[in-house]
Request: fold
Amino acid sequence: MTPGVGTVPAMNTTINHWPLRDRPRERLLAQGSAALADAELLAVLLRTGIRGLDAVALARMLLAEFGSIGALLAATPERALKSRGLGRAKYCQLAAAAELARRAHYETLTRAGGLSSPDQAADYLKARLSHLPREVFAVMFLDTRHRVIAFEEMFFGTIDGASVHPREVVSRALALAAAAVIVAHNHPSGVAEPSAADRHLTRQLSQALALVDVRLLDHFIVGDGAPTSLAQLGML
Reply:
């Protein structure tokens, strides 16, 4: 089944008039959430449609308007509430679901015996930073066993860049008694290629942290697709 499409009855009926086997909530209970298309999952969260559109049709409209699930869930209140299909209540439902997913992902990192691979960190950082409209520089602080102590968004910029101060990262690492850190920032353009400024900042951070015996394990750049690891590119 194509994501976001699904097989549903004609649009001139409400979901309550659909056969039980076709209703998103009933299908979720019977077949599991993975069996539902994007629009159907979104419809379960939205719960109801709006005048002239059932919940699934509304979900399809929103996915088309915002371009993707990620962009919809990351939309600011100002942007989201401009949509005909989203009022305050529906926006709050979506924002709460997105935040719960991020917190659940964070729990898996903090409860584990430590990061077992760079992919774990990359997946979490993409979930936290992708689709943000401005550049955000974040730091994941780790203990000696590479268990997550804290994740903090430390610096904020515009679409053109963020002003990052290595001394503040060092100060926070000392305050948290971190043994290592992973840093990341997003490129709102979607292009995850490291710039000359990114490479320079990585060297500065690595040198500053080394002075207090804290390792910089990686610097991820988050854009479209998989995050780019500067460690894997040999820049650390």
